[in-house]
Amino acid sequence: MEQVLGFLSDGANWQGEAGIPNRLLEHLEIALLAVLIASLIALPLGFYIGHTGRLQLVGINIANMGRAIPSYALMVMLLPVMLGLAPVLGYDPRLGLRFLPVFLAMVLLAVPPILVATYAGLQDVDRELSESSRGMGLTERQILTQVELPLALPVIVGGVRIALLQVIATATIGAFLAGGGLGRFIIDGIARRDDGMLYTGVLLVSVLAVGTDISLSWVQRRLTPAGVRAATEPGSVELRGSGAT
Amino acid sequence: MEQASGAGAATIEFEHVSKRYDTSAKAKGTPGAVDDLSLTVPAGRICALVGPSGCGKTTTLKMVNRLIEPTDGRILIDGVDIASIDVTELRRGIGYVIQQTGLFPHQTIAQNVGTVPRLLGWDKARVGRRCDELLSLVGLEPRSYGDRYPSQLSGGERQRVGVARALAADPPVMLMDEPFGAVDPIVRERLQNEFLRLQEDLAKTILFVTHDIDEAIKMGDLVVVMQQGGKIAQAGAPAELLAAPSSEYVARFVGADRGLKRLSLYRVGDVELRPAPVVRVGDSAESVRAVGRERDEHYLLLVDGTDRPLGWVEAADLEPGRVVSEAEADPATPLLDRRDTLKDATSRLLDAEVRYGVVVDRTGRVLGLLTLDAVMDWMQDDRSREVPGDIAEAVSEAVVIDDPDAVVEVG
Amino acid sequence: MVEIRWDWIAGHLDDVADKTWQHVQLLVIPMVAGFVIAFALAILAARRPGTIGPVTAVTGLLYTIPSLAAFAVLVPITGLSLMTAIIPLTAYTLLILYVNTVAGLRSVPAEVNEAADAMGYGRWTRLLRIQVPLAVPMIMAGVRVATVTTIGLVTVSAIVGGNRFGGLGQFITEGLQTDFDTKIYLGAVGSVILAFIIDGGLVGLQRWLTPWARARAERA
After folding, report:
1. Which residues of A touch C69 (CB under 8 A)?
2. Superfamily name with CATH number, domain A2-243
3. Which of B355, B353, B380 minimizes the C-alpha distance to B370?
4. A102, B174, B193, C180: most buried, per Cβ within 10 A?
5. What is the band of B107 on the pLDDT scale with cuts at 50, 70, 90?
6. Domains along chain C?
């Protein structure tokens, strides 16, 4: 639409804090940071559950909770809690206090997909392969890193993909509470009835999401050996990236 | 008893029927799944199609209810070309029983059995009566089985339901594809026997596919041995196939023990029994010896007052002046029934290591002796190879392949 | 830390009821519409398997779009009516309902389909009486996930909906604007509880629809 083009062609919109590049950067920064932190939690736990087979129940429950709790509800519930803890935590004046619950929600919601993908991907690796490696004298860590992980990698990347899409969508919503990111264009666009801004925001965030989905899917496919699971398996919908958070 | 509207049995005719999956030009000349099959199944008879896997027997079967459509030729039921009838209507008039039963898991047994009647628009009460009737017919108590689900039944019970379901609308034609294959041998034998008894009353035209030659011999009035491409290597009554296989292929398929298999086709009652040399309790030793001399026998059969066998006595053993009593008799095993197959009877004679066995009637009275000689006489007798007229006719009309031995290996 | 004013809630029960009712409406309408569309597409998939790929790709694409964007998209067009929320909500249900319905129909054992054909079931009667009932477990699995997801999404729609729509999410936005913790939690926790209740109801519905599965479980 012309309004979008109008917005995009206005040079002012490309500069400064409220400019497109900056917002995009903000969005990407927090998304990647959240996924990184979530991975630091989820990957080790996932390795443990997947390799040893213990604590399965913990894994399943975390997965279920992740699905049941919507991001918006989570972040608002955390808000008063975080405000109460503010003196202890300190805060970044740039983003304001309200940013923390958004970020925390993003991290928490990114954990289940990565966790599930990690342990499920490891468990999918043929038991016999691990057994024979053990028989050949590899240590448990070597089995994990040299045999199981490489084979489970596509699935794990899939989990990261889902997590990333999740946080991109959550960060978009988070603009309502505080902070920047591309969601800012949408919120402000509605508030100021600026259709150009609004649709630019919609377009940008959609392109970001779809682009992330497509590129990580491509990476996944490249990492997968022959015998790709059909996309129409019901469980695999869980394996799809979703903006519906 | 609820009678379905006058459905007798119908003939099935295959006229130059072919099925080919690859109809491209480059495939011409190569064999299809079924090549030019011509065969008539007489009404009211069981025709067993038997052959190795991939020979086209199941394809042939499925062309009758048009689950598979022939590429060439016609199939007629009671003279009507099945291609000219609406396919759904056709199928509602044909019973279909398969190995995995195909029972609908989400419906009760009663609902499963009532499927076709409901499709035909029968009213609820009539469907219910018919279901009860059929379940009883196949040996399942309607009260306890009707409301259960297929997953709650054993394999044998499920197969019975499958048969009941196929019979529900009293179709003149039944198609059966390895129906008893998925159960253990004991259950299978029972199901086969019960089905044969059922057929005695119902006299439906049945096309029965199996890979088991023993089952084909047992179940079929007409047995058709098939080869790759649905070609008929030999068609005939079971006795004919066993007594005179027409080629090396058929002989191998029927098995090297076909002589023994022939024995299972006949019963003790078919054979002429030798009169038993009987003596009674209380007869004097002299009269016993007299009977022995008269009949030229060393061993005489001691019976009681009601003609029931007590055992064998040796004439020479008896002391003069003594009276014969039970204590001196050796047990008269085996005791045979006229309904026993010759195979079972012969087996028991071998088992007891005797040359003849005592045949008794249902009440236990002696009827005569079955000797191995008499068995052999019967096997040589032409009457043992008598074939009913309609079967003979079907055999003569079946188009048989020229040289069955020329084709690649058996299964 | 967090102060919940139960007295306030007790005094505004009709408001709670209204918003809950709207939340339910915004759940049911998209679910029904989504189901009808997904079901029609699934039947198409049975006739023409070639459509599965493209349809899955399109519905998947819709699913990937971040929710806030999806709700914002229609604001200039349909304003602040319920349609602005209903259309995106429906779009989000499509992928999972479609994929699960297709898989469910495919899960019917081949011999059951064959037997149905052989008995003389026509195509449509076979679909209705044999395939769909047996596909219920997988379809219901999809319905459950779609339901829980939709309930969550309705809360997000309140960001865009102002005081017009958003169900219990409206409590959240109002609470945020007025710094009123009670409302925030009422909206957030309320929607999660609603999800649990309805999910429980769906489990019950599935059990009621599949008596034969119960029988099998009893036997085992």
Report:
1. 172, 186, 201-202, 205-206, 243
2. MetI-like (1.10.3720.10)
3. B355
4. A102
5. very high
6. 18-212 (1.10.3720.10)
